[in-house]
Known about the structure:
- By secondary structure, the protein is mainly beta.
- It has a single domain (9-219), classed as Methylamine Dehydrogenase, Chain H, CATH 2.130.10.30.
- It contains 1 helix and 16 strands.
- The protein has one helix at 94-99, and strands at residues 9-14, 18-23, 28-33, 48-55, 61-66, 70-75, 80-85, 106-112, 119-124, 128-133, 138-143, 161-168, 174-179, 183-188, 193-197, 212-219.
- The strands form 4 sheets. A 4-stranded antiparallel beta sheet has the order 1-2-3-4, with no helix packed on it.
- A hairpin with a 4-residue loop joins strand 10 and strand 11 (138-143).
Amino acid sequence: VAVSGGLHFRSISDGLNHTCGVTVEGTLYCWGYNNDNQLGHDDDSLKMSKKPIAILDSVKFISVTAGGQHTCALATDSTAYCWGNFEHGRLGIGESLAEKFKGKKHQIVPAPVEGGHTFRWLSAGGVHTCAVGTDGQAYCWGDDLDGRVGLNSSMLGRKPWVTKPSAIANDLRFTMISAGDYHSCGVTVAGAVYCWGGNRDGQLGTGTTKGGDKIAHIMNASPAHP
């Protein structure tokens, strides 16, 4: 079925129970379930929307990524915005902004990701988010259980999560990263694949079921065929 409204999209992403898209004009729309304010609408009482509703009209976007209970989008100026459930740092908005909503677990409207970074790629996972900076540097934030953020969990203390973008794999440069529920994978500028995080079902592609925060080299770029 066609999405209502006659809109034309250039980017679209499905979350657990919601969908968001960016039109060719750069307007962000979301629809579906809104139990964690993952739609980004400023009406906190909105529980669901059966049709696309425009979000943050003052900003133009180029892409959007819908996670389990949160959403992130990339603006035309390469700034990242996130909203929805901010538990375990998955929004990357830092402790200070999250403290303003003490007693709640939601960021109702899109908020800029902390750190002043500029990005060219975003991917929202289940409880974490990863991104690629405009210089190819990889960043992740959120819950680092099983090493899905790519950091040494033993160094994070009692709270195994990070609330703002943290650089990982500093010796590599990426073109894209995909954040899953329990793991992450990225493609470097050379076309090589690296994965990290949970590996109970072999999702890292290492040939074993051993996972963790070590960023594993999975495969090189396929050779070109004549």
